[in-house]
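Two proteins follow. First one:
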Amino acid sequence: QVQLVESGGGLVQPGGSLRLSCAASGLTFGRYTMRWFRQAPGKERELVASITNMHLVTNYADSVKGRFTISRDNTRNTLYLQMNSLKPEDTAVYYCNAAGVNYWGQGTQVTVSS
């Protein structure tokens, strides 16, 4: 069965950095476009970034362009999200997802606050 386990969240001051990880199992990781989503309290889940499987083409939400970097290691079945210059509005629960797979893990909480 599919499992996606997010980690790396925490409390950070504005301007700080975090690196999220997503460990995947139960699927052929290298075949899927992978995505990071986030959901802030009272808001809908939004797509933050995506990366294709073979050519590693990346896309980002306008709100995170230039600050976040998505990457993947297909040999380790792991997805990453490097988050720099964090802002309070980045506070949310962050989830990884395999495109076309209806599975959501528990997510990892990111809180940006002074």
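Second one, unrelated to the first:
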Amino acid sequence: VQLVQSGAELRNPGASVKVSCKASGFTFIKSYIHWVRQRPGQGLEWMGRIDPEDGDTKYGQSFRDRVTFTADTSTDTAYLDLNSLSSEDSAVYYCNAGANWGQGTQVTVSS
């Protein structure tokens, strides 16, 4: 089982970022994909989840207006889109499916 995420991103404030999470070794449509982030010196923060089978999403209240999750069942890949970035969004972003975690994607927001 593997979740492989896209590479590190550097963005200016106000921009958007898209992070991918490619799954293998399990049935993609049978597992919720959760997104979690960790800011420097902080704990894990749940951002929400998507059901790849039907695209149903649930977003954490802190992100509801700025985040979109999608899933491509033809490539077993989940995506996180986060817009209106600020320095507070600089963090490592992780995808998760059950006991399996992606390796994390560093997103840095800086002018």
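SUMMARY FIELD: Residues 47 and 108 are 17 Å apart (CA to CA). The chain has a mean pLDDT of 96.
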